[in-house]
TrEMBL record:
Function: General (non sugar-specific) component of the phosphoenolpyruvate-dependent sugar phosphotransferase system (sugar PTS). This major carbohydrate active-transport system catalyzes the phosphorylation of incoming sugar substrates concomitantly with their translocation across the cell membrane. Enzyme I transfers the phosphoryl group from phosphoenolpyruvate (PEP) to the phosphoryl carrier protein (HPr).
Family, as annotated: Belongs to the PEP-utilizing enzyme family.
PEP-utilising enzyme C-terminal domain ranges (all copies): 12-279
Catalyzed reaction equations: L-histidyl-[protein] + phosphoenolpyruvate = N(pros)-phospho-L-histidyl-[protein] + pyruvate
Domain of life: Bacteria
Chief site of localization: cytoplasm
Organism: Nostocoides vanveenii
Protein name: Phosphoenolpyruvate-protein phosphotransferase
Cofactor: Mg(2+)
Keywords: Cytoplasm, Kinase, Magnesium, Metal-binding, Phosphotransferase system, Sugar transport, Transferase, Transport
Gene (UniProt): ptsP
């Protein structure tokens, strides 16, 4: 019965009572885009642009980038494509954007911090994205990685708009930005929670160290509290908040994140059908109850068990 229900689920993400949660794809390049484009999803919630250039030793030109971005956008027609500007450094080093060795790369000049030191890289990328958006007609929205402060968000939004791109957002993956999301989001159009880094920084546990996976677990109640604070701040600012970390692709966590206030979930495309099915079985108040149960737990294990015990199906 579950397999049939799963196969039959299609269309936009909706809770049982009709609350919309956009279901989006995480992609890393042209091949992923061509595979995800024909699938039943509402667009892209995270295009990790740095993946395209992992083996480039020279900075790609505007023309080279525009050609790639056109091929990434085209499979999505007029659907939304959320593009993250280069998230170089730490676990994603790029040869042409290397600022030299650092003692603590995860806490160093990575993401938007690197863009601030090499603004010519950011401007070339934004220019190429604007060209490709115009040429394809895709609904392109650009967001910055590793934003920590309101000033950084403002600086990024200004540069995005100067390049003729209509929508700017920020990733919320630093606890400081999550706690202050109302203020960080004031001059941007949306926020997107990066739960992988948010867990790393909330629990002070290196995401590259597999032995620390219990601490990196998004079911950690502290991580859920930080996510809740970020969603509440976004609501006060009147800005949509989504999730683009791996947590959004787990059906039980997807329910919890919906209950915490996430309005979109971006995940590996293979996960969309299961998450859509899970949402269809639960109302928004159900999801809010699951979120409260998870946050009421003392441990990650207890949070997961509490939600598992309360859901209406074997998800
Ligand atoms: C995240 O940090 O959760 C995220 C979506 O980005 P990445 O995994 O690429 O750092
Ligand atoms: Mg991240």
């Amino acid at each position: 019965a579950r397999a049939e229900a799963l196969a039959a689920s299609s269309g936009p993400g909706l809770t049982r009572d009709g609350h919309h949660v956009a279901l989006l794809a995480n992609i890393g390049g042209v091949e992923d885009a061509e595979a995800a484009g024909p699938q039943d999803l509402e667009g892209v919630g995270l295009f990790r642009t740095e993946f395209v250039f992992l083996s480039s030793d020279k900075a790609p030109t505007v023309a080279e980038q525009a050609e790639i971005y056109r091929r990434v956008f085209a499979p999505f027609g007029s659907r939304r494509v959320v593009v993250r500007t280069l998230d170089a450094g730490a676990d994603k080093p790029l040869a042409f954007a290397d600022l030299g060795p650092e003692e603590n790369p995860a806490l160093g000049r990575r993401g938007l911090r690197l863009s601030a030191e090499r603004p010519e890289l950011l401007d070339a990328q934004l220019e190429a994205l604007a060209v490709a958006a115009r040429d394809t007609g895709a609904d392109v929205r650009v967001m910055a990685p590793m934003v920590a402060t309101a000033e950084e968000a403002d600086w990024f939004a200004r540069r995005v708009r100067e390049n003729g791109l209509p929508r700017a957002g920020v990733m919320i993956e630093v606890p400081g930005a999550a706690l202050r999301s109302e203020h960080v989001l004031r001059d941007v159009d949306f926020g997107s929670l990066g739960t992988n880094d948010l867990a790393q920084y909330t629990m002070a546990a290196d995401r590259m160290q597999g032995v620390l996976s219990d601490l990196l677990d998004p079911w950690q109640p502290a991580v859920l509290d930080v996510i809740a604070a970020a969603c509440e701040g976004a609501a006060r600012a009147g800005r949509p908040m989504g999730v683009c970390g791996e947590a959004g692709g787990d059906p039980l966590l997807a329910l919890v994140l919906t209950g915490l206030g996430a309005g979109s979930l971006s995940m590996a495309p293979s996960k969309v059908a299961m998450v859509r099915y899970a949402l269809s079985l639960h109302s928004l108040p159900d999801c809010q109850g699951l979120a409260a149960a998870a946050r009421g737990a003392r441990t990650a294990r207890e949070a997961l068990d509490a939600v598992r015990a309360a859901v209406h199906a074997d998800l």
